[in-house]
Amino acid sequence: MHWDIVIDNFDYFLWGAAKLDGIFPYIHNIGGLAAAIILAIAGIFGAFWIGLAAGLMRLSKKWWIKYPAVFYIEMIRGMPLLLLIFWFFFLAPVLLGQSLPAFTTTMVCFMIFTGAYIGEIVRAGVVALPSGQMEAARGSGLSKYQAMRFVILPQALRNMIPSFVNQFVSLTKDTSLASVIGVNELTRTGVQVDNREMIGSFEVWITIAALYFVVCYILTSISRRMEAQLSRYQARDR
After folding, report:
1. Can you give the chain as a three-state secondary structure string?
2. What is this structure's pTM?
3. Is residue 202 left, alpha or beta, with left meaning phi > 0 and alpha meaning psi from -120 to 50?
4. What range does the domain containing 144 cover?
5. Overall number of domains in the chain
6. For the domain that residue 13 is a member of, what is the CATH number?
7. Residues 101, 33: contact at Cβ < 8 Å?
């Protein structure tokens, strides 16, 4: 067994080649697990707003608002994430006249890809509410926009939280795909260490798997706790 290789490179697995400044590493050259988490957080944050807009647009009765959202959601959900990453990575230089950093390209792809799934979550969450909610809000004098903003969305978003966390877990695992275009996230650090050391492959990849598992397990535990709290709130409301 060659666990000394894992011990010697553990800091590289965590934040890549970034130098430590006290407790936190410099953002420059950050990689490893830290880069994967940054990609996942930025991706889910941007995807939330994209998905929220797409989901509400899909609920519109106006075709010129609804059908672009339907096209976006269905097209992206029917496309592999890896293909989307390749498509953006090689298309950007053609459209912009210059290549985008691989990290930025991947982040944008994560936002667009996950946004389509969040859009469907938003649509399903709003539709799941009793139809009388909108009628009651409109009857109280609120406009349709105000009813959606102040009555429907707060209730729907509360019920969507576990689904958002599950999507975050999925995106965290999908960050491994960024390695194919050279982003130095956790999977790529494993490849680099494995290629450099030429021994201890089993130990390296067990460590990489364990790091992914720890992060995803924490997120899954948060999701379960939120689901339990929502169940208690719903039971109390009844």
Report:
1. CCHHHHHHHHHHHHHECCCEECCEECCCCECHHHHHHHHHHHHHHHHHHHHHHHHHHHCCCCHHHHHHHHHHHHHHHCCCHHHHHHHHHHHHHHHHCCCCCHHHHHHHHHHHHHHHHHHHHHHHHHHCCCCHHHHHHHHCCCCHHHHHHHHHHHHHHHHHHHHHHHHHHHHHHHHHHHHHHCCCEHHHHHHHHHHHHCCCHHHHHHHHHHHHHHHHHHHHHHHHHHHHHHHHHHHHHC
2. 0.91
3. alpha
4. 3-237
5. 1
6. 1.10.3720.10
7. no
> What are the pLDDT tens digits along the chain (238 aa)?
789 999 999 999 999 887 666 555 566 678 999 999 999 999 999 999 999 999 999 999 999 999 999 999 999 999 999 999 999 998 888 887 888 889 999 999 999 999 999 999 999 999 988 878 888 888 888 888 888 988 899 888 888 888 998 899 999 999 999 999 999 999 999 999 999 988 889 999 999 999 999 999 999 898 888 878 877 776 666 5
Q: What are the tokens at 73?
A: 């959601």
